[in-house]
Design brief:
Structural class: mainly alpha
Number of strands: 0
Order of helices and strands: HHHHHH
Largest sheet: none
Length: 94
Amino acid sequence: MKHPVDEQREYFKSDDVLSTFFEALAGDDIRALYNLHIPRSDVFYVREKYYNDTGHWVSLDRMEIAMFREGLLEARDVKDPYRVRDWEQEDDEK
């Protein structure tokens, strides 16, 4: 069951964090800036390494959660670390 607030939030709508930041900044959207989550730089580097090794591209959200569950990130570094993602439910159905 989804929490009503979850329906209003957008989690990693785009992996293009920089563009999202500048759009919010240019639009003077303080709320969007406040809600913007920029992953630690480690997440970007590990995702690139994962892609180079496997040829499989994953979202920042998926990589960030994987790193958190492996103990490489702390809960404070992850946006909603204990929330079940839509892609997790899809993986369980396969």
